[in-house]
Structures are given as C-alpha cells and as structure tokens.
Amino acid sequence: MVMRWPHFMLLQCLLLVIVGGIVYIHKDRVTLIKNPPASLAQWYKPENERQVWLHNMFKLRREMQAVRFYADSKDAKSLDKWVALLSEHYLKIGEMVPEWQKKLDVEAIARLQQNASSDRYQDVSHTLDDLSENCESCHTDYRIITAAMYRAPDFSSMEIGPSTSLEAHMEELTRQVNQIKIASEDGMQDVALLSLSDLEKGINVLGETCSSCHKKDTRVYPDATINKTISSLGESLRTGTLKDQGRELGTLAVLACARCHGTHRLAYDSRKLFIDRQSWVELIKH
To answer: Phi and psi of 210, rounded to 5°?
Structure first.
C-alpha cells in the first residue's frame, strides 16, 4: 500500500512534535549545540603545525579595529590599506572552510570597499557594524565548542609508565590524599606518613610529564611552594594538632591539585564532552 503524500507529511509533523515534546520536557538536561565542520580541524594543531585558523581570526580583529580607527581619523590612505587586508582575510574564511562560505556577508565587504574608496567614512563605520554582527552570529554558535575541541589539551593517550595511564595515576593520587585525611583523623600516624610519601613520589612522577607541553620550562610541577607544603604537612602529621594537619593538607590539595585542575581538567573534560559522542542507547537512558 502506497502512503499518500498528506499522510506522509502528517507523520513527519507528528514525529517532530514528539521529539520537540521530549526535548522540552527534559530541557533542564538537554543542551543543543552546533558542531563545526570537520574541515576546520585541518587549520588547528595537531593536523597543522600552526594555529592557522586562530591567527586568521586575530588578523581580522586587528584589521577591524584599524578600519574603525582610520575611518574615525578620516585617513584615506591608511583606511584603504586596512580595508584591503580585512577583505582578504574575511573572504579567506570561505576558502579555508567551504561549508561556511554561505555564512559570509560578502555584500557587506563590497559596501565597505566602496565606501572606503569614496571616502564615506561614516558609512564605513556603519558597514563595519554590520560585519561585526555577522562575525558575532558565528561566534555565538561555534566559538566555545571550537575552542573546546581544538584548543583544549588531550590527555587521553598520555601514559605515566609502560602500563599506567595518566587517568589511573591521577586516581591513585586522589586516593592517597584521602588516605592521609582518613589516617590523620583516626590517629594512624604511620599510615598517614606512608601515604604522604607515596603522594610525594606520585606528584614528582606526574611532574615529569609536564615538559611534554611546557617545553620551555625545565620544571613546572611540583614547584618550590608545593615541596615546602609537603614538608610542612609531614612535620604536622608527626607533631601537629588535627587542625594543623587538616589545614596543611587542604593547602597542599589546592596547590598540587585544584590549581592545575582549574586549567587543565576543566578544559579536558569539556573537550571530551564534545569529542566523545554518546550512542543513541546512552542518550535514551538520559
């Protein structure tokens, strides 16, 4: 039996209503995002040796500022120079990512060139406003997710040793921190000191991986402050009060864990959120 066209359209509308209803009901747990085209990856590391896309964006921001400045100054020669550069790098977006060609306001670029060549400075500023709105519309959709996908660090394949992943090592460090706290509160000095010794060794081993990214710094982790705090915590575990021990351990947790997590873990977890796509089964579960 052949489905009639009106019936087919009715079925499609019904499916849209059902999906829309499900999303609305779970709106507190659903976030809709737009993924950038896959062709964008070629302009970022590691596929490219340089952050080509990023540098093109920096050029555009600088050129838009220069165009505004020279339009306000009524400096025709300098204005023509910067309008030409702005036009070149703006249109380059479509060359680098063809999927975004249709998003470009080519008419605004043409108006900008015409207004600049005719010394219509006020019109240049108005056209620049239109161009800024066009840029902002794309930034709203893609800037955050693009930064998370292509600029955040990827620790997923990093290993501490031949059979120890970075993730497993970090979990062990967390276990040692908690073991110090438990042993301290329960009066088990030997266990607390042994856990601190293991924690110190683990922190030093972790620090050896930092140079893979921080190539210009000979040693960034642990720094002198962290080492001093470890020493102070050890002394406190031997002779200090429970309050002193808790304060020293809290300080160490902030210096050795929280500060790095605030930069690296947040960025890495955000990247995983966008890179590691959930299956339909996992989505349905949620």
So the answer is: -60, -35
Give 112-124 pLDDT, tens digit per residue: 999 999 999 999 9
* Nearest C-alpha neighbor of 159 from the set 125, 206, 126, 122: 206
Angle at CA of residue 43, ends 39 and 47, nearest 5°: 90
**Contacts (Cβ under 8 Å, ≥6 apart) of 53:** 40, 43, 44, 96
Q: Give CA angle at 147 (267, 134), nearest 5°.
A: 150
Please name which of 154, 157, 168 lies closest in space to residue 271, comparing C-alpha atoms.
154
Query: With contact defined as beta carbons under 8 Å apart, do 44 and 53 qualify?
Result: yes
**Interhelix angle 52-73/76-96, nearest 10 degrees:** 150
Tokens of residue 172, six digits:
């062990």
Q: Quick check: 210 and 153 in contact, CB under 8 A?
A: no
Distance of CA 95 to the CA centre of its chain: 25
Owner of token pair 């680098």:
96
Query: What are the CA-CA distances from residue 267 to residues 144, 150, 177, 216, 272 (Å)?
Result: 11, 11, 23, 21, 9
- Residue corresponding to tokens 């010394």: 119
The angle formed by the CA atoms of residues 266, 268 and 271, to the nearest 5 degrees, is: 110
> What tens digit of pLDDT does each residue of 67-99 get?
999 999 999 999 999 999 999 999 999 999 999
d(C-alpha 134, C-alpha 110), whole Å: 14
Residue 137 backbone class (left: φ over 0; alpha: ψ -120 to 50; beta: rest): alpha
